[in-house]
Amino acid sequence: MNGFDRPEQPRSSGLSGDAELLEAMVEGASEGLVLLSAGGLILRANHAASKFIGQDRDSIIGRPIQAVLFKGAFEGSFIAEVVASHLAVSRAYDLADGRSVLVQGRPVVAGAARVVLVISDVTSVKQLVNLVQGPAGEAQSTWAEMRCAERTPPDGAPVVVRSAAMQAVRDKALQCATVDSPVLLRGETGTGKGVFAKLIHEASARRSGPFCVVNCGAIPEGLLEAELFGYARGAFTGADSRGKVGLIELAHAGTLLLDEIGDLPLGLQVKLLRFLESGEVWPVGASKGKRPDVRIVAATNRDVRQMIAEGSFRKDLYYRLNVLSIHIPPLREHPEDIPWLVATMLEQLERRLGRRKGIAPDALEAIGRLPFPGNVRELWNVVESLVVTVPSEIIEATDLPVDIADAPDALPAATREYDGGDLRQALRKLEAQILREALQRYGTQSKAARHLGVAQATIARKSKLYGLDA
After folding, report:
1. Is the domain of 206 the same as that of 317?
2. Which of 300, 304, 344, 392 is the most exposed place for a label (fewest CB within 10 A)?
3. DSSP assignment letter at 229
4. Residue pLDDT, tens place only, 328-362
5. Do 405 and 419 belong together in one domain?
6. What does the DSSP assignment read for 211-265?
7. pTM metric for this prediction
8. Pairwise CA distance, residues 198 & 184, whole Å
9. Domain identity same for 258 and 183
10. pLDDT one-digit tens code per residue, 127-166
11. Are 282 and 260 found together in one domain?
């Protein structure tokens, strides 16, 4: 076998020009590419894959991938997980020669092939993470324990779940994907509610159906009803003579995401409740209803219970939507995900913008200290801005925007609250606040000391002084 080709044939009946170009791309790729059957048998492999595996291609075709990849350290359950979940799944491995590799399995349907493995050398990324996360021994341990660091809907954004908090969110989202009950996604703006809604859809039995999104706060109330429910022919002056199919009906056999559900006007809340209760959609001006098969996912960054108390959101609609509920924590509550998010963003931006950038450890550490009130969306904007504006191949700490580094939210609360008075008392208050935040973020005195650049004994003494050692 020759890579991804069929057995060699005479040139007169050989590959077309396009197929030859495709072959050259596959064979010239630095990443290893392996096509597998649903049972994990190797169907095809490119030259880079054979180098990672360490065996001649002819000797591995038809063999189980777990028997040849990384001397048997590869888990057989990896392939079954990709096939069953229809999601991209990643694993990290350390090779005997000191290299570190990332193996990503993606679902495909091409003849007998069901999974394509992409094997990438990520030694430099690991070294960067090690520098950011601490001593080599500790970082080596966390790297070896990494599992399912990324789950990606086939055409969606990656769900980076390095932290325990985000792993719990991902696991709950995958549990929700197994049923058709409504899901309410709660979280601050920019936390990735839309990404998790897409993950739920792609992991569900509805994955082959449409995934439709409507932002309930971005469309005027007079138009939103027609967008959601559609309208019949001649329903009102200026209406399309053919009528209009609403998004609920367009999402038939799929999933509809009602983004910013807290902004849905009260009048439309009644109509949405009627659909959730009866399963019927009544387009504007229609004489009879329709019964589309739709799974509803709603998302909001607002306190719906407070809205219910204020009378701006219906309690009965809340109960209908809140059958399954997922809270997505803000980025400041899982900063350990930031290095992995930045690495993923740089990779995506390289594909989209054609600009390859690395990031220096001190720059990554500085980014990790920012509060990011806009969460992952704000982090993405910062990274994209750096990729576009930094002329060198490595992003340094000095390249970070001054307005972000100096923003008031980046300062401890004690600094913002100081309005004059006793300077010594204000400084003690500030020191206690900085120490408290460092201990909360890093968990131990040794890590907090390393972050603040002082001895652990200093942290212990100051903690006792300010009553933080309880």
Report:
1. yes
2. 392
3. H
4. 999 988 888 898 899 888 888 888 888 888 888 88
5. no
6. EEEEETTTS-HHHHHHHHHEE-TTSSTT--TT-EE-HHHHTTTEEEEEETGGGS-
7. 0.59
8. 13
9. yes
10. 555 554 444 444 443 333 333 334 444 334 457 777 888 9
11. yes
